[in-house]
């Protein structure tokens, strides 16, 4: 949940807004300081429902006065008689006085005879010597005492000389800015790490810096909104970000719920919004500190956390390990024997363990690191300190290895100390080359056996099925359509559990409405987030057919398809439960002026490729040959790494009871993405999806919707526009301005050409998805496209059938589903 601090103020503007407070002047309640370009304002305010008065700084132009800093957060003023003075006793301290001139809050002494306080455009309130020629020589600055927000330019970290530690901490509530328990900052002990705590308990550890990002926060990536840096030397350790374009404000907020996240100002909606994929710190269960205990790696497997001991280690208390409490962790199978020499075993792709008791040496190589570690009997592991340029530097651990997480692509290699005998054992267990033949033969025999057995069981089950209904177990067995070996179980959710998770299908939780019914967001009791598709009851399909259909869909697994995690068929309802992807859909990115900047060309290319592979899988590689029929930008969801995931697949098949492979009288789809032969004649085939894919590709390149596309020169839609520019040999003009100049022209042109090939009028001219994938990879030469279908949308083609109830005039993006008049 998103809680931002928005408050109303009774700010009485002084006649001339000023940004400087001089000696002998004061700011009373009602007066303010305003930064030079009016971005920030300093004055008194009351948060939320509170009556207390606080001195603070807030955004002036945007965000309804989002407060970014509070001076007297732990010492509220009870009335409106507060005043901010610069201490006249010649020491330049800022003092906040109450009605009886008692000092409620003060800045640290600045020791100057000519103090001035200035509110800078960055939101920093500084005290400096008015006679100092250096404008950046601050004697005191509010940036050194952050409240709950980290702004661009602020340092998060420790000054090792003065001991000043700058961290952000939550408010007690939206009505009370007093410092609460949630704190995010840098822990300088051992090798410095970014840590999020509640009180003294660590909740999440982003880890040490590996040259590119925190080891446990690979989502911190170069992006179009801000740059970031990490500095660590003998004087200080800090992290800082800076805005690339000061026109897109962005900040890190610790809200009272203890949910640290990055918010960025959205011009369109006039709101602060989390900017995935770079917004959240805590992405999944495995990010909970030390969830698996020592010497264990946490692995996010199908939405739930799994703990697994490092090789050579076993669960410390096996009985608890099987239950959920794994915090006991793992212990060595074989004790170390330092005298007689230990070795090291490499564990790949992990978030490196806690470095609070570690040492680092940035100058030595991995080989020297190994040497160093093996010489010291209390050294438990080593790794590269910096991953840049193939890796360098040396990190050493001397304690239990705690809080590791599997990070498939962005993790690091960790070398764990092992007894030599254990290493031998592990080596011996690995399959040797000589044994390979034997293993292959055994496997062949085994598989044959299983198939025979499977066939037998299948026949047996089939015979028995005819006699009775399935038992009332809560799992569905996949044993209907063939191989027993492939039996799978799809969780069936209880209706009440889903109703609870979605707060009784409340509108608040509604994510959207598709052609098959509304979709809700929900949170299961265990905390897992889900998306629930509640299918409308109009489908005449029987429950049993539905379940079978769902079982088939559940078997579809591809990294570019959204994962189905269960279904619910109680109370005459059909619901499908999917993994929830917080990142919204492609629709929210490509057509949004601000967010589209997050999608540079290489990301877009990757997304186009991903959608193509997902679709190819549906069309050809999966056993079902599913035609999606409603591919569109809002049905392509993006995960944290901006990988596209097609949603809503299989629904077409699951729902058309009276359709054939070639014709349907139930047209489901979205105008703007439907090919002519489908919208008009209800004819669909894989080539209808190819058409929709082509539209999507052009939309991604162009950043504009096909439907509702407007151009001053003509009445064509996006397809017509693209076609026109193509034949006039000016396709470059199609390219989205958000891309700037950073793209490979040949790649973009190839995509445009593929897009146009996919939207050709005649289905038989359109390539199939396997050709598309090859074309996109540049492995196939491209033919010249012919005229696209539906390129003038302003003259919707008539269907010719007077009984048709179709209307091509609906302009919104929602999926429609029309039953033709019979
Ligand atoms: C604060 O400043 C005002 C003038 O603006 C002055 O009258 C008052 O005495 C000052 N208070 C203290 C404690 O310096
Ligand atoms: C204020 O805005 C003007 C014009 O946009 C700019 O030239 C100037 O540098 C800005 N000043 C500060 C302090 O940001
Ligand atoms: C912003 O403040 C105005 C009143 O000043 C209020 O009417 C409006 O609802 C506020 N908007 C938001 C998004 O809080
Ligand atoms: C600065 O002045 C204030 C009162 O104006 C006083 O309370 C404080 O002790 C002084 N600080 C130093 C370091 O002299
Ligand atoms: C003003 O502040 C002083 C020192 O914090 C305190 O002793 C005094 O009671 C306060 N006066 C009022 C009216 O709050
Ligand atoms: C500055 O003030 C803070 C409290 O506001 C205090 O903890 C710290 O010791 C002070 N530092 C110096 C150098 O006076
Ligand atoms: C091993 O390293 C630890 C941590 O640096 C150190 O305290 C200890 O003295 C070292 N032991 C030996 C034998 O060098």
Automatic annotation (TrEMBL):
User: Keywords on this record?
Assistant: ATP-binding, Cell membrane, Disulfide bond, EGF-like domain, Glycoprotein, Kinase, Membrane, Nucleotide-binding, Serine/threonine-protein kinase, Signal, Transferase, Transmembrane, Transmembrane helix
Q: Which residues form a coiled coil?
A: none
Which GO annotations describe the biological process of this protein?
A: recognition of pollen
Can you quote a single GO CC term?
plasma membrane
Membrane topology (UniProt): Single-pass type I membrane protein
**Domain (Bulb-type lectin): residue spans on this chain:** 18-140
Query: Annotated Gene Ontology MF terms?
Result: ATP binding; protein serine kinase activity; protein serine/threonine kinase activity
Q: Which cellular compartments is it found in?
A: Cell membrane
**Does the record carry Cell membrane as a key word?**
yes
The UniProt regions of compositional bias labelled Low complexity, in chain numbering, are 799-808
Region listing for Disordered, in residue ranges: 780-808
Cite the EGF-like domain residue spans from the record: 282-319
Give the range the annotation lists for the signal sequence. 1-17
This enzyme catalyses: L-seryl-[protein] + ATP = O-phospho-L-seryl-[protein] + ADP + H(+); L-threonyl-[protein] + ATP = O-phospho-L-threonyl-[protein] + ADP + H(+)
Please state every residue range assigned to the domain named Protein kinase: 505-790
Transmembrane feature ranges: 437-460
Ranges for domain Apple: 338-419
EC number(s) reported in the record = 2.7.11.1
Which family is this sequence assigned to?
Belongs to the protein kinase superfamily. Ser/Thr protein kinase family.
- State the protein's name: Receptor-like serine/threonine-protein kinase
Query: Whose protein is this, by species?
Result: Citrus clementina
